[in-house]
Amino acid sequence: MIEILTPPEVDRARRTGGLVGAILQDLRARTSVGTNLLELDEWTRSMINDAGAESCYVDYAPSFGRGRFGHHVCTAVNDAVLHGLPHDRSLADGDLLTLDLAILLDGMAADAAISFVVGNSDQPESLAMINTTERALAAGIAAAGPGARIGDLAHAIGSVLSADGYPINLEFGGHGIGTTMHQDPHVPNTGRPGRGYQLRPGVLLALEPWIMADTDELITDDDGWTLRSATGCRTAHTEHTIAITPDGAEILTLP
Questions:
Q1: Angle at 96 (CA atoms; ends 165, 236), nearest 5 degrees
Q2: What is the average per-residue pLDDT within 149-155?
């Protein structure tokens, strides 16, 4: 089922999205060499609680995970790319960190992710990967609007990823979002234009291009959650929640 939100519901989703964006930027500003992943999770828990919101992750227990996620933010480092389970690890200079956050506030969910290099930013390969995911996300958003089809967004995203030479994994991608975190439709990170569900005002989507430097194969960590590149190569992931409006697409998860 694809959820069509009313204008008041979209207004509530805007507030949730703003909170997600603000928390991610706060976490980025606090993160430095020596920051522990469990510190990031605790800071996230505190900010969510202070806002009167709820984590979408703590009780999240999908078929592909091992039990409840049990934490408040996904923390993926270097070769980890998705569903990074926070653990006792202190970040080192030059680590590539992805933070992925989904929150429920006033009955509406929003989801976003950012990737950045910790400490020393002289990491051209990592910065290039992050830039590719950001440009792919921008292309997907630009292709969205009333009357556009899911394949149009997927094609726009995939064209940027492929042009930069990155393999594309189709196991995980973007998704519908609204009163719950994960909904139809699925938005793959490549596709054929003119295919799939036709967008209309009131649809919310979380678009999330993610890449691995030299493979499209994932492996699951021993924690049962963290997904890593099969070759140990670095990864990057960028995500925004957008709302389809009569005028186009609006990014909800800007800080």
A1: 35
A2: 98
> 192-196 long-range CB contacts below 8 Å, 24 or more apart?
192/151, 192/154, 192/155, 193/149, 193/151, 193/152, 193/155, 194/149, 194/151, 194/152, 195/149, 195/150, 195/151, 196/149, 196/150, 196/151, 196/154
Domains in the chain, number: 1
- CATH number, position 87: 3.90.230.10
Domain assignment of residue 136, given as a range: 7-251
177 token code pair: 């979002």
| 37: in domain | yes
Q: Domain for residue 141, yes or no?
A: yes
Are the C-beta atoms of residues 121 and 141 closer than 8 Å to each other? no
* Per-residue pLDDT tens digits for 83-97: 999 999 999 999 999
Q: Is 80 exceeded by the pLDDT of residue 69?
A: yes
Instruction: Show the beta-strand stretches assigned E in the chain.
Output: 54-55, 74-77, 80-82, 96-105, 108-117, 174-176, 183-187, 204-207, 210-212, 218-220, 227-229, 235-237, 240-245, 248-251
The answer to whether residue 97 sits within a structural domain is yes
pLDDT per residue over 175-198, tens digit each? 999 999 999 999 999 999 999 999
Of residues 157, 160, 159, 186, the one with CA closest to residue 173: 186
Is residue 1 one of the residues assigned to a domain?
A: no
Question: Which pLDDT score, from 0 to 100, does residue 121 have?
Answer: 72
